[in-house]
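Ticket #4471: structure output looks truncated?

Reporter: J.K.
Steps to reproduce: submitted the chain below (501 residues) through the standard prediction queue, then opened the result file.
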Amino acid sequence: MAVFTPAFNQYEDNASTPPSAVDAASTSVQAEEPIPSRPSSVAEEKRILKDLETADNQVGMKVGSFYYILATRWAKAWKRHVGYDDANDPGSGSDDDSFGYDGSPGPIDNESLLEQPVVPGAEQVKKGVHEGFDWLVVSEQIWKHLHAWYGGGPALPRRVVQGQYDRQGIVEVRPLTLAVYKSSALQNAAVTMMFSKTDTVGYFKKTAAAALGLNQADVRVWDFHQQSRYKLLEELNSRLDTAGIVDNNAMLLEEKGEDGKFPPAPRSSLGFSSGSYYSNYSGGPCDPGTAGLSNLGNTCFMASALQCLSNTPPLSTYFIDDKFKDDVNETNPLGTRGELASAFAGLVKLLWSGEHSVITPRDFKSKLERFAPQFAGYQQHDSQELLAFLLDGLHEDLNRVKTKPYRDLPDGNGRPEEEIAREAWDYHRARNDSIVVDWFQGQLKSTLVCPKCDRVSVTFDPSMYLSLPLPMKTTRVIDLKFVSMDGSRKPGTIRSICTLD
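Returned output as attached by the reporter:
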């Protein structure tokens, strides 16, 4: 598979397209001071990096700048080596030897952070690794100094992008990895490219066309899901994530024919407007509520959870009748300003329209990934985890309480349990009031007895999930081979059923 990593380029004069997502290797400031050779003392190493850290803190993260991913294991070893977080002599830092510290930290080693198989030039940070424990981010200058002194790698530059709803910058740890095809050479392997979720469709078109040797004026961009022209991306100013593009997405640059015109769009498309739902449907109309969800690739976990919620009558009716619009809470910092609720409503309406027997929930999945990146891509996930996220997300989007009151709950002090339960529930409803609370939440009773004074404490906590263990066999069948020592009896098999205590 060919690889092309877009080069970082400054904003153009009419600058409607931001710089690319990943490759900061080509960034350079003409007046930038050269990296000094590695100091002869660890104390000087520490001083130089401390000064850089202080300068970084004063400037803060700026949208468009680059930070680098660094393995925590190596960073801790280096800090111990120079005594970075200790006021005493170098090397006298943490006593934690779990990172294999043996003096000098050696070359930088980020290999353990990479998703397999590794695509050179488009290295992706794997899922399941966590900031702080597995990796941390350092500024470009700190990375350049450490890399010049110790070598190793690979370099994992990541751009600072604007947050979802505010101007605060965040480091985009997992940019989009896209497989790009051109229509005149579909038999060839795709070119792997990395882009920011915040890059525009127009920037993707310009960069991908240049990488594949095409004139951007003679191509148009398709979401090439499952090797078919799934959705035409015409809104060039739309961000890739809002256009429904997800990690590991296939993209098609469709070229004009010899007549200077584009080929006709496939009949299965329902339209060309970005952000609409699209369906590769079959079988024609169906009974409302019986439509299926096509598998996008290991998305059975999502389909099962969505079908369960769609077939909960109070919830589906609430969304189909647009009653949810009156409850959307756009000021709740824990919600998505109604975006998740609106996406779910659109999907439920399709499932109950009776117009199509198969629905492809690509746009819903794209919206889901924006707010729950743990479900990005096409790996398998736990259905209950998705169900929990959806219910929590819908509750926060539809919480009718705009200002949450606070008060302390008094102790039970021997009062009737019904009174304690009602008081706890009223307090919970004063802060949480949505259709999810109405139909999916209840209370669990918890009783604690003090082993010294025998005081009993009874509490009633709100609950939405009840985890039950899978039934396990309590017996085991064991076959014993019998062989008589004196040969007086024929060899045989004795089957025994044992009870597991």
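Triage note (M.O.): checked the attachment and the full token line is present. The two ends are 55 Å apart (CA to CA).
Status: closed, working as intended.
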